[in-house]
Structure formats: structure tokens, C-alpha cells
UniProtKB/TrEMBL annotation:
This is PLD phosphodiesterase domain-containing protein. InterPro entries: PLipase_D/transphosphatidylase. GO terms for biological process: phosphorus metabolic process. Residues 85-112 form the PLD phosphodiesterase domain. Gene3D superfamilies: Endonuclease Chain A (3.30.870.10). SUPFAM superfamilies: Phospholipase D/nuclease. One of its GO terms (molecular function) is catalytic activity.
């Protein structure tokens, strides 16, 4: 944790922004007030191609400067989403997802970032996960989203008119507020006197379930097509499960066709391919069938890792795994490997010097073996529940990442969705964050992280 007090301790938000923008996967910001003199957060997201979801305040005071609203309207991109919360938003939170979060007093203005006395804290991703605050942040943004409305051209024009009037009528503040309440486009919020968290949670689960199942059908369709005799590359045996073939097709497409050095321009691909996803998929399948590239990684996954995972995660085996077998299993799950390699050496009990990726993965697996949910569930119980439990897979995944009974730090949706696929590839193609990015790059309107 770091204390961010601007000039008082020389911990500036603009410096923090530069540190974390590259390593985050997207940005979610709920900051009540945003002025035209500080677009640093927004411009950094645009420069680094990071999806941005911004929540600002909506009221008669023009809390979000019309110039900020115009910035979002001019972008006209699915990568940049501006929503407004009527009357009750006063938060100042910037969440660089997978990198960390700032929670403090600073609005998006030069005064707040440079000269005001502001105070806040920055919690890196590891601390958010280990303290359970990542889940709390997720719930916070979901509650804010439930009360927000998307920016429209009409709202921008209304706020622009209000801004002009405020400069003329500063002495008639009360009358302006009264007139605004009479004519306002969005209904007034009267505060969080009561929040029906159960109802809100049910609505969010329904949305998650719909997104999960819709994308599952897309994955199944791709699996049937990529494994067909005319589409399957000659080096893949016909006995390989279609779900495994779909996973490796999307893996290769994302890393060899979409990723560009340190850039991950899947939203640029989406903007282009969403006009005709079928054509994009046909081109990608043709590339997959004919491409001459080193596919040793894909062969290892298909012929070594996938069968071993299916063996270890079998219904009659999963609860009997030894620690060594568990570490062996999770070391073959790509989402867990990626997460493990990003961990600080100190967290894994390793010396403070560069470490081999496999060593970090092994240590992380050993650490994960010892973790428990808040209600005392072991990681083997968690995996068995997600892979082989009763009810729908989507419901089990929802519980596994959100409930105190099941959720275990550092094992999230991306890892669990992939694990289900390796255990049961005939029913559920392996699915992680990279899978979703590959699908989105092909033009499918899927949500990243679902």
C-alpha cells in the first residue's frame, strides 16, 4: 500500500498513472468531478489501447465538464464508455484492473492532481486480491453501474447549456437548481437509504449467465468448424477434442495475428471485424489450416498438457490429488501460469532477483495449495465443485469467484473457466481471458473477463 498525497509526499497521481497503465488490462474509474484541464487518464487509455469505463456525477453543477463528455462522444469507440450517475456519486476511485487501485479524495482536475491537498491510497493488485478488496471493488462498480445512465448527445448538449448559464447566473444558484430539477432528463436520486443487494446480485448473475452461455455457444460453434476435416491442420490428429482445438486456434490467432509486440490491439480488430465476423473467422480458419509457423507450443499443449490435465481433473481423481500432483496440474493452466509469473518474488518466498518462469509457477502452486476460502474450503474442494458440482457451470463459476464459501484469492474466473475446459473439453471448450480477447478480435461482441 502507498500513501498518495501529491506534492506533500511527492507521490503524484500522474506519476502513478505512468507506472501502471501499461500493465493493467482495462481501467474503471468512478470520479465525481472531471474538468477539461485534466484528460491525462483518458488520453493514457487511448494511447495504450486500454478499455476505459468512466462514471461521473450528473447534476445541475455540471460536475463533468462538457469538454470531457465531448471527448467520449468524439471517440465513438466501444473501448471508451462514459456513464453518468445522477446526484449521489461522490467517489474518487481509479481501478487499473490487474495492476492496482487508487482510492482517495482527488477528482480529475489539475488542481486535484497537482496543487490541492489531497489524500488517498494505492493498493497494488496482490493486496486487492489477498484482502478480498478486488471482490469489493467489483461489487462497488456493479452497484454504481446499476444507478448510471450512458452518455448521450442530448445529455452533452444539456450540460453544455447549463455550463453557459452557470457562468451568467452564479448568483442565482438556488433558482437554477430548481429549474434543473423541473426539466432534468435523468430522474433524481435521493441517496442510498436502502440497497436491495440480493436483487442487484440476482440481476448481475442473470447478466453473467447470459454472457457466459452466449459465448459458450460461440466457442462450441468454432470448435465444430475448426476440427472439421477441411479446416483442421494436418499436424492435429482427428482424435483431439474439438474444444481443445478451438482453444489452440484462438491462442495462436491472438498471439500470432493480433498481438503486436507489447501492444494488444484486439479492440482495433473488433472495430474492423465486427462488421462481418463470419468473414473474419473464415480468413482466420484458412490461416490456421495453412500457416507455416512453429507450432511446438500448440503441440505440447494438445498432446502433453491437455491429456495430463484431463487425467488429474477427472471426477474420481480430483479430490485425491497430492500437493505435487496439484502443482503439476496448475502449472499446465495458462491463466494460472500468467498470473504466477506476475507475482512479486517476495510474495512467493523467492530471492529478490530475476527468477525463471517455471520456478515462480511452482512456488505459486505450492502457495495456492495452502489457501482456503473464508469458510475453510480447500482449493481441491473448490476445483471439484466448479468442475463436477451440481447445477449449471455458470452458477458454480459465479459462486466460485464471489461467495465466501468458495472464493479463494488469486484463482479467478479466467483460471476456473480454463480448468473446466481442460477437464471436460467435449462439453466446455477451455476459456480464459486470452480466449475472450481472441473472440473479440474476430469481431464477436463478447465481454472481456466473462
Amino acid at each position: 500500500m502507498r500513501f498518495i498525497a501529491g506534492p506533500l509526499n511527492k507521490q503524484l497521481l500522474q506519476n502513478l498513472l505512468g507506472e501502471v497503465i501499461e500493465s493493467c488490462t482495462r481501467v474503471r474509474a468512478a470520479v465525481a468531478y472531471a474538468s477539461r484541464d485534466n484528460l491525462k487518464l483518458f488520453e493514457a487509455c487511448a494511447q495504450h489501447l486500454k478499455p476505459l469505463e468512466f462514471f461521473g456525477r450528473y447534476d445541475h453543477t455540471v460536475a463533468v465538464d462538457p469538454a470531457v463528455l465531448k471527448w467520449f462522444l468524439d471517440k465513438a469507440s466501444p473501448n471508451f464508455d462514459c456513464k453518468l450517475v445522477p446526484d449521489i456519486l461522490h467517489a474518487k476511485i481509479i481501478w487499473w484492473v490487474d495492476a492496482g487501485a487508487y482510492i482517495g479524495s482527488a477528482n480529475l482536475s489539475d488542481r486535484a492532481w497537482i496543487s490541492n491537498i489531497e489524500a488517498g491510497t494505492f493498493l497494488p493488485h496482490d493486496e486487492l486480491v489477498e484482502t478480498g478488496m478486488e471482490r469489493e471493488l467489483q461489487r462497488f462498480f456493479e452497484e454504481v453501474d446499476d444507478r448510471a445512465r450512458p452518455l448521450t448527445k442530448e445529455i452533452y448538449q444539456e450540460q453544455l447549456r447549463l455550463a453557459d448559464r452557470r457562468s451568467e447566473l452564479s448568483k442565482r444558484e438556488y433558482g437554477l437548481e430548481q429549474q434543473f430539477d423541473k426539466d432534468r432528463l435523468l430522474p433524481k436520486n435521493h441517496g442510498l437509504v436502502f440497497v436491495d443487494t440480493k436483487r442487484s446480485s440476482e440481476k448481475r448473475f442473470q447478466k453473467f449467465e447470459q454472457d457466459w452461455n452466449d459465448t459458450l455457444q460461440v466457442m462450441r460453434s468454432i470448435a465444430s468448424r475448426v476440427s472439421a476435416p477441411g479446416a483442421k491442420p494436418g499436424w492435429i490428429d482427428a482424435s483431439v477434442a474439438p474444444g481443445v482445438q478451438a482453444d489452440q486456434f484462438l491462442h495462436a490467432y491472438y498471439y500470432k495475428q493480433v498481438k503486436d509486440g507489447n501492444r494488444h490491439p484486439y479492440e482495433e480488430f473488433f472495430a474492423r471485424n465486427s462488421k462481418n465476423p463470419e468473414l473474419a473467422l473464415r480468413d482466420a480458419l484458412e490461416w490456421w489450416h495453412d500457416a507455416d509457423f512453429d507450432h511446438s507450443f500448440e503441440e505440447r499443449t494438445i498432446y502433453e498438457w491437455s491429456p495430463r490435465l484431463r487425467e488429474l481433473l477427472a471426477r474420481d481423481r480430483i479430490l485425491k490429488l497430492t500437493e505435487q500432483e496439484f502443482v503439476d496440474a496448475v502449472s499446465r493452466v495458462h491463466a494460472i501460469r500468467d498470473h504466477a509469473i506476475k507475482q512479486e518474488n517476495e510474495h512467493l518466498g523467492l530471492p529478490d532477483r530475476p527468477q525463471a518462469g517455471d520456478d515462480k509457477v511452482e512456488k505459486f502452486g505450492e502457495w495456492l495449495w495452502r489457501q482456503r476460502s473464508r469458510e475453510g474450503r480447500t482449493v481441491l474442494e473448490l476445483l471439484n465443485y466448479v468442475v463436477w458440482g451440481n447445477g449449471s457451470v455458470s452458477a458454480r463459476l459465479w459462486n466460485a469467484i464471489r461467495s465466501d464459501d468458495w472464493a479463494i484469492p488469486h484463482i479467478g474466473l479466467s483460471s476456473l473457466g480454463e480448468i473446466v475446459g481442460w477437464a471436460r473439453p467435449d462439453e466446455f471448450p477451455p476459456r480464459n481471458m486470452r480466449t475472450s480477447k481472441g473472440l473479440r478480435a474476430l469481431g464477436y461482441n463478447v465481454r472481456i473477463g466473462v
